[in-house]
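Action item from last week, closing it out:
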Amino acid sequence: MNRREYLASIPVSLLSSKMLFSAEPRAAAVDATILEGYKLVEVSSVADAMEQLYGERAYMSHDMRPVFKTKFAGPATTVLMKKGEHKEGSKVSQGMLDAIDAAAPGAVYVMVLPDGTDIAAMGGLMATAMKFRGLAGAVLDGAVRDLPQIQRIQFPVYSRGISPATSVNHYRFEARDVPVMCAGVRVTPGDIVAADEDGVAVVPRNRVAEVLKKAMELDDTEHRMYPFIEKYKSIREAVDKFGRI
């Protein structure tokens, strides 16, 4: 079954349902069929769907880029760090490690270092733990380091920069599984984080069905436009016919 056929196979009843999550935010058990849809649909269509349906920005800053070409989606588990110089070493940051060990397989680790684009929020050790715990990926409002190891194990990481600098003695753990602002977008635990080559988008967990349905429609229209443009060599005719750009 190809991508288009899979998206078309998602039952309308699921796309209309609002009861897709457990009551506990950390569990955030989105229906598996909906989640698979987000793994296939294009992130640009997700961003467009959020804007068209709710008039809201859902995409992170343009400098949120992947270590390597990747595509993933999953429910967010969040970590907030607090800037502050100290000499206590890593013991004041244990909460960010506990968040990894507590995360469910398939989760997306979203970590925020305020003013941390020149500081690595994580490196090879944390990426290795996430990889072998089965997390879907990591999204860092901060930098990343240890690229050789991250690329070797092929664990998907998005960050706002690359830096050799450590956060140890410069940041403290503040909280986990709380709402955070990550690269311009609010992320609440359990929200769907979707990433591909275009960037990262976030969908509130109570809107995942409606947004996926709209994103699927936008994706389908766009992919029908490509062969039309190739055949008739006119973007204007395509837009007039399909109503999308």
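Closing note: The chain has one domain: 3-211.
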